[in-house]
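Field notebook, page 313. I keep forgetting to write these up properly, so this time I am using the form the group agreed on. The chain and the ligand, PBG, are recorded exactly as supplied. Prediction of the bound pose follows.
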Amino acid sequence: MRRLVREHSLAAGHLIQPLFVVHGAGVEREIGSMPGVFHLSVDEALDREVERVRILGLGGVILFGIPASKDEAGSESYADDGIVQRALRRLRERSPDLLLFTDVCCCEYTSHGHCGVLAGETVDNDATLAVLGRVAVSHARAGADIVAPSGMMDGMVAAIRAALDAAGFSDRSILSYAVKYASAFYGPFREAADSAPAFGDRRQYQMDPANVREGLLEAALDEAEGADLLMVKPALAYLDVVRAVRERTDLPLVAYNVSGEYAMVKAAARLGWIDERRVVLEALTGMRRAGADAIVTYHAKEAAAWLAEEAER
Ligand code: PBG
């Protein structure tokens, strides 16, 4: 009877697995603060991971790249032979049906670790827009289906839409990290992507955790600029924001279950303090209940395997 009257569902197809790609050969290096998540080289290491994703029936993967070298302008982010571009070409060729998202941001590629072009000690919002357009076009050319700008620059969606259309990629979609908070929950990611800012923090462009109306405004602006999907990030401490955005837009909505949320669950599970499987499925169900259509989560593969087991019972 519980199954008959259940109000919300969670399925593998709702989940998007983040993947970290690196230069080199035969690399499968676990990230210290994110057990079960690996730096993968663009060869059999990546192929094996993507084969698991395919078998489990996940909704897609989102790619993050660790460049060979960083510079002031973050130039590997839009290079034809950049790490994400190389990964995209390999995946597109071998897995034509896999939905490929890419993170579009400068912070993994810049020597200063900020999400845009610097003018003195601050990010120059408008100068950054041209760079983001260039990154998005290079990802589209290499095979990305959906580009996901995460830098919280004003006007980023309009700039990327215009750049994609001008380059002949009007068929590609934009998932905007529209409502992204300046959060301490990104800590492990910054180790994984080596992207902690060299000075200052991201409060110039990321939102104040105390605000929700501001998030609605950000979401409405990105929708008006042509976003195809919207994202709220992080997820667990912001489920009220997910719900509020859900009630204001008819666009598909994504929640990002971020690295710190993942690390806390993994740490407590290792200590034997929680039942990991139940905690993960409960948290992901909560995100769906709050109104997320899809969820970016490092738990995606494990959660999908558990869901498949439960369906067999
Ligand atoms: C890049 C970016 C970040 C995350 C996704 N894209 C880091 C940040 O804004 O500092 C965080 C993801 C996570 O913590 O899992 N701008």
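OBSERVATIONS:
- The radius of gyration is 18 Å.
- The first helix runs from residue 44 to 56.
FOLLOW-UP: compare against the apo run.
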